[in-house]
Design goal:
Largest sheet: 8 strands, mixed
CATH topology: Nitrilase/N-carbamoyl-D-aminoacid amidohydrolase
Low-confidence stretches: none
GO biological process, one term: asparagine metabolic process
Pfam families: CN_hydrolase (PF00795)
CATH superfamily: Carbon-nitrogen hydrolase
Distance between the termini: 17 Å
Bound molecules: ligand LQR7VSFR
Number of helices: 6
Number of domains: 1
Protein name: Putative nitrilase
Order of helices and strands: EHEHEHEEEEEEEEHEHEEEEH
Radius of gyration: 18 Å
CATH class: Alpha Beta
GO molecular function: omega-amidase activity
Family: Belongs to the carbon-nitrogen hydrolase superfamily. NIT1/NIT2 family.
Number of strands: 16
Length: 298
């Protein structure tokens, strides 16, 4: 299992996500290059893109923008023969800059399973290898009268697996946006030894101010882990108005960095001593009463 070492994370709050997929990918490439340069400071070890970074966000767009990834857990993946343009571009970017990359999420089509569609995050190591994918488990189906109705399940299916992966600096759990509302996912990841949960996400102008920061602080404090969420920039000409405010929170629930709502790259330095001192000082990780309630993570 990966040990926690100091590392730097960059969240790319990507703007200009329009209807031209090639343009979206080109812009993401440029922003990865910019993020990898470190913004005048140390280069990051891990770069994160937002949810649905290559397509407009909305269930009517997913069938048109979906790409076939065909990843099989535990089997080597041949990026060169991938049918996914996004995978090829992200893999090349991770390799060129020698960084770990969580490639936000993209609409994915699984040709092996009746062409089902998913909202899928892909993860690359510094050699450009695709080492994990996460399919959004909890679909964003909500209805707040007069404010927002959104039904991802109109075109998407929910993923059926939880995702964790090891880097050379931490074990990381991965979710996508609405997944953050389900504490079980982060709890299970933490009990499996994850030091951080990362969620590419895209809250909106109704739920963002209510819950975006609160949920990340809750997941961080519940589990004494680092939590980061990376949003697209706000674009009031798009169908969906993202909240922005990409954020990294430490295991005490303190905000390490928070962006505004325009396009921006923010960096946070992850300090293992905060992880250790939080767990030493408030030792809930060793005070659980599995004699009173079941250990759901086993
Ligand atoms: N976009 C999402 O998946 C979730 C969201 O906006 C919310 O939970 O609020």
């Amino acid at each position: 299992m990966a040990a926690l070492r100091p590392f730097r994370i960059a969240l790319i709050q990507l703007g200009h996500i329009g209807h031209d997929k090639s343009q979206n990918l080109k812009h993401a490439q440029e922003m990865i290059k910019k993020a990898a340069s470190g913004g005048g400071s140390k280069p990051p070890n891990l770069i994160v893109l937002p949810e649905c970074f290559n397509s407009p966000y909305g269930h009517k767009y997913f069938p048109e923008y979906a790409e076939s990834v065909q990843f099989k857990q535990g089997e080597p993946y041949d990026v060169q023969s991938s049918k996914s343009e996004s995978v090829k571009i992200l893999s090349a970017a991770a390799k060129e800059h020698g960084i770990w990359l969580i490639g936000g999420s993209i609409p994915e089509r699984d040709d092996r399973d009746d062409g089902k569609l998913y909202n899928t995050a892909t993860v690359y190591n510094p050699n450009g290898e695709l080492i994990a994918i996460h399919r959004k488990v909890h679909l964003f189906d909500i209805e707040i009268p007069g404010k927002i109705t959104f039904k991802e399940s109109t075109t998407l299916s929910g993923g059926t697996h939880l995702t964790t992966f090891d880097t050379d600096f931490a074990r990381i759990g991965l979710g996508i946006c609405y997944d953050v509302r389900f504490p079980e996912m982060a709890m299970i990841a933490a009990r499996k030894g994850c030091h951080a949960m990362i969620y590419p996400g895209a809250f909106n102008l109704t739920t963002g101010p209510l819950h975006w920061k609160l949920l990340q602080q809750a997941r961080a404090v519940d589990n004494q882990i680092f939590v980061g969420m990376c949003s697209p920039a706000r674009d009031l000409t798009a169908d969906y108005h993202a909240w922005g405010h990409s954020l990294v929170v430490d295991p005490l629930g303190e905000v390490l960095v928070e962006s505004g709502h325009d396009e921006e790259i923010v960096y946070a330095d992850i300090d293992p001593s905060v992880f250790e001192s939080t767990r030493r000082g408030i030792p809930v990780t060793t005070q659980r009463r599995f004699d009173v309630y079941p250990n759901v993570a086993v």
